[in-house]
Amino acid sequence: MPLLEVKQDVRDVAVIVSAGGEIDSGTVDTLVTYLEAALEAASDHPSRVLVLELGDVTYFGSAGLNAVLGCFERGRSDGVSVRVVASNAEVIMPIAVTKLDNVLRPYQTVTDALGGSDGAQ
Amino acid sequence: MTKPDPARRAEAELSAAAIPNLHVGSFRFWFVGQRWEWSDEVARMHGYEPGSVVPTTELLLSHKHPDDRQHVQDQLDHLLHFGGSFSSRHRFIDTAGREHTVIVLADRMLDDSGALVGSEGYYIDLTDTFHQARRQALDDSLPELFEARAAIEQAKGALMLVYRINAEAAFEILLWRSQQTNTKLRALAAQVVAELDTLRYEPDNLRREFDHLLLTVHDRVGTTRDG
């Protein structure tokens, strides 16, 4: 059983990356590799939307926070809307205490994220 | 009545600048950017001349003990989830291949808006400097360190002035006295601060008087001083 599992799903409406498990300094490289590939895919996708689903993440450290923030910022400069989905405390709390929720603005569900636009929340 | 001989002998040791063999260094870690700052002492613990390397996540990973899955950075991430401050025992391998055991005292680092931006605190290197019993004594005193920061910082300031030393050396000396006398650091520091006004301001005698205060202060912890 790997510590971190990441899946990419290219749908009509968006590219969706789902991560589950532990994201720390030992596993973050795996996530970063997936995020880079997903950004490539999303920039070729008509929607130019990348949804990052973190609901099954069981450990979210600063390495994960940086990877997600880095992906968000790269998306912004590449014209891809990166939308974070998380309602679990494990992910929400680090984003909240660092006040990065002003930037990342996590959505509650994938449906919300697909319906939302930047800064909608 | 003058104090008995043991205190005098200890005074002589301190006057001979017998800095305890306890290595304490400070660090800062920023969550965003995963950026580190080490004091010179923390660099030396890892085997580097101060200023010769930039501490990074990769560099820290290269010092990770092979039996540990996580390293210190992941432990600092604790603050993202639980707030407050914490201390933890941690080990790493220096550039010469020696294993170090350190206690990491970590507190939150906030920006002006109150956002948690990282962690700052101390590394206390226990390697080769303590017998097991003394390590235990230090472990036991750790949880109170951050609860009693004000008293400890004030006592440190007094030591810095009197002995013309930096903050780290002042902290080392307080820890040393705490261990040697089996007195809680918080109580020791508070008592030092409470007794500062008993010193006469005669610069020539100040250090000697302070030596005595510092080396006997544990005997008076918990007693009320008559004005």
How much is the radius of gyration of chain B in Å? Answer: 19 Å
H and E order of chain A: EEHEHEHHH
Query: What structural category do the secondary elements of chain A indicate?
Result: alpha/beta
Say how many strands of chain B there are. 5
Helix and strand composition category of chain B: alpha+beta
CATH superfamily of chain A: STAS domain
Distance between the termini of chain B: 18 Å
Largest sheet descriptor of chain B: 5 strands, antiparallel
Instruction: Name the CATH class of chain A.
Output: Alpha Beta
Low-confidence stretches of chain A: none
Notes on the protein architecture:
The complex is a heterodimer of chains A (121) and B (227). Chain A has 121 residues and is an alpha/beta fold. Chain A has a single domain (4-106), classed as Transcription Regulator spoIIAA (2-Layer Sandwich). Chain A is 44% helix and 27% strand. In chain A, strands 1-2-3-4 form a 4-stranded mixed sheet. The mean pLDDT of chain A is 93. The longest helix of chain B has 16 residues, at 132-147. In chain B, strands 2-1-5-4-3 form a 5-stranded antiparallel sheet. The relative contact order of chain B is 0.13. Chain B is α+β, with helices and mostly antiparallel strands and 227 residues long. Chain B contains 10 helices and 5 strands; from the N terminus they run αββααααβββααααα. Chain B folds into 2 domains: 1-18 and 131-220, no CATH class; 23-128, Beta-Lactamase (2-Layer Sandwich), CATH 3.30.450. Chain B starts with a helix and ends in an 11-residue tail after the last helix. In chain B, 46% of the residues lie in helices and 19% in strands. Chains A and B meet through helix 2 and helix 3 of A and helix 4 of B.
